[in-house]
Amino acid sequence: MRGASQAKWVVAAVAVALAATACGSSSSDGASSGPVNAQGTFSYQSSEPQNPLQPANAMEVGGGRVIKTLFKGLVDYDPSTGKLRNQVADKIETTDAQNYTVTLKSGWTFHDGTPVTAQSFVDAWNWSANVKNNQINSDWFSDIQGYDAVHPDKGDPTAETMTGLKVVDDTHFTIALTGPVSYFEYKLGYTAFSPLPKVFFTDPAKYGQSPIGNGPYKFVSWEHNKAITVSAYDKYEGLDKPKNSGIVFKNYSQAEAAYKDLVSDNLDVLDQVDPSDLASYKNDLGDRAVDQAQGAIQSISFSLYQDSWKGQDKAKVRQGLSMAIDRDTITKTVLQGSRQPANSWVAPGAMGYKDNTCGEACTFNPEKAKQLITEGGGVPGNKITVLYNADGGHKEWVDAVCNSIRQATGVECVGDPKPDFKSARDLIKNKKVDGLMRTGWVQDYPLNANFLRDVYGTGAAANDAGYSSAEFDRLAGEADKATTVEKTAELYQQAEAQLAKDMPAIPLWYYKTTAGYSKNVQNVKYDSFGDPVFTQVEVKQK
Amino acid sequence: MGRFVARRLLQMIPVFLGTVTIIFFMTRMLPGDPAAAMWGDKAADPAQLAAFKHRMGLDVSIGRQYLNYMGDLLTGNFGETMAGRKVIDVIGEALPVTVRLALLAFVFELVVGVTIGLFSGLRRGKAFDKSALVLTLLLISIPVPVLGFIFQNVFAIQLKWITPTVQDSMNLGQLILPAVVLGSISLAYVARLTRTSIAENLKADYMRTAVAKGLPRRKVIGTHLLRNSMIPVVTFLGTDLGALMGGAIVTEGIFNVKGVGNALYHAINLNEGATVSGFVVVLVLVYLAASLIVDLLYAVLDPRIRYA
């Protein structure tokens, strides 16, 4: 019964469009569409938030998705095109990618009626970044000047505010970063950068239980472990005005139970189909079934910090192992079509995604695989292990990958299960893995830099392989200094080419949103974060 | 009688302390760092991690943590969850749901189980007895999840009598189906225990006496036979009540009932030692109380049993 036990970690939580490769089926509201009840509310499969509902305090989907409906930041991502668009911001100007001037639109209000001003943003960011307030996403503010003072590695903060944030007047403020970050605007689309009303700071704990935001929905109630209810905010100024009058985030501990409720129309919108119903869900739901690519990738990384994987020759061995994996067959059979084979380190849907950057190395070719492994001096001991957490439903595909490698190359390959996510992460984080390990990445924001620099840059927090390439770091550094996002994305594509040469991690497949909705609703679309576009859901008249 | 109860209550103290101690160390020995896991795939912020551990009292030695925990427990403080909620609040939300579910299941297995057992025992070897044996065998051999899925499919998806999962966990009507699933295995045991016990006692001397005295059949069976045959059944039911309260993880998951099982499952997944031990403390108390009541019931049922 541990099917969907592992918490899903999603960081950014705003909508983005799908790539061209997405096999979208959610747009098919033809046969079942009907008159819309604008007063209708719908339910969504959710889980209990792990933290109070404060904008910078949700890293998992349970809290993240609720916060996304309650708050709206300067910018967000257009769900139909994936482009960054202004919401509370009227414009964000910069000449050097380091100093930004933000102009706000007027007329935005919080749900308590107070206006959203430049001060609302600056106060919120200062509070969220402060180490004393223990916000789980506080490191998102680390680009801003003066972050070190409010969030030192040890000890108490020496300042209450970041020097990089200055309020000019009610509708203007400036942001100074410690260095140029050309895609900083992309980061601003994340909910951690939401504004907070004055009243929040009087009792943050209380407003974490009953939040007051400025988003399309306002908070109604939170029955712990049961449901969170939000209703449409009629004075919402954003571009995405809700087409329904509210959402009930209904708590399910078992995905199977949620699926049963969906099939019988007792639940309206599903998060993910549970593994045991994957084979039949398209049959059960017909054109209400959803199957499309997500901005997340699964890979296996090498413990490059171990002697056995050092040396330039070993890159060939790693490429050979990648070639020995029959991604097409495994995604179709073992994973029942719930994943899409990967041939790049960036998931489709992200800006700067380039098809087939992995090239030949991600194409199944047993002959060439064997040859490359021999040329590279073989695998130490002719045996590899793949470390994974046994509580996340990974056993089946790890075994399949190992079988594929064994049959194609004769290299002995076995899975190395650790009892749960936490213990596997402990070993990986402390660089104590001996061999290969399961790794994955869910986009924080839909830009290739997020898939590359945050995972493969030297010393990056999620660089589990311990990969360090001077060439990659040089290109990434240049990309970060570029003044346009387009240039950044292009330079990161060049950096990605270095990954194909060194192969620190084998890309396996991209995640897909396999979900669906009930007969009570229509116009249900999912973005590349796997979240439904809540504001667009239409409730049908009964 | 009074001395017996007093002695039993005193005996409960070491049992209670022992179980709480064992559970405390077991949950704390689970692999992985619950605090660091809050950051998911990302590296935890060291300063915040330290602050978090300090708030949860995880930054001192395990022995110190134990003393702190036991000290807090004596003052009725069950600690906090990772999300900063009081564990006692979480228990307070989940317990009423599970009490309802467990009592429904208990009544179901008691009434239906004893009835089936009684008639089977009285008509040993007859058609009713044989079909009851087959039915109970079936119930014992079908795992709870399978039974739950069958019921969901038949009654909710096919017949549409009910919703597949419980929409309101406090609604007794909606809890009936999960209670039937939860109580079904125990029902089979109750029926079989009653049947055997009835069949044995039918041959007892006091039964022959009662019949010879010319008592009406109703009284012979109701007062003498049934009452004396209930001792093994009551023993089973007593321990089963505790199991129903704590062991409903699977059933509560299938039917999305927001009770103790669900909360425990969630807490174990998040490695929340304080919540897990909090629930176990409550469950231990339930077990102890149930077993005391069972012992006292013996004397009520069988006049030959006396407590000094």
TrEMBL record, chain A:
Specify the domain of life of the species encoding this protein. Bacteria
What PROSITE patterns does the record point to? PROKAR_LIPOPROTEIN
Stretches assigned to the Solute-binding protein family domain: 85-461
Provide ranges: composition bias, Low complexity. 25-34
The entry's protein name is Peptide ABC transporter substrate-binding protein
Q: Signal peptide location in the record?
A: 1-19
GO terms for biological process?
A: peptide transport
High-level lineage? Bacteria, Bacillati, Actinomycetota, Actinomycetes, Kitasatosporales
Q: Where is the composition biased (Polar residues)?
A: 35-54
Q: Which residues form a coiled coil?
A: none
| UniProt-annotated stretches for the region Disordered | 25-57
Organism in which the protein naturally occurs: Kitasatospora cheerisanensis KCTC 2395
Q: Which CDD domains match?
A: PBP2_NikA_DppA_OppA_like
GO CC terms on record?
Answer: ATP-binding cassette (ABC) transporter complex; periplasmic space
Pfam families attached to this UniProt entry: SBP_bac_5
Keywords recorded for this protein, A-Z: Signal
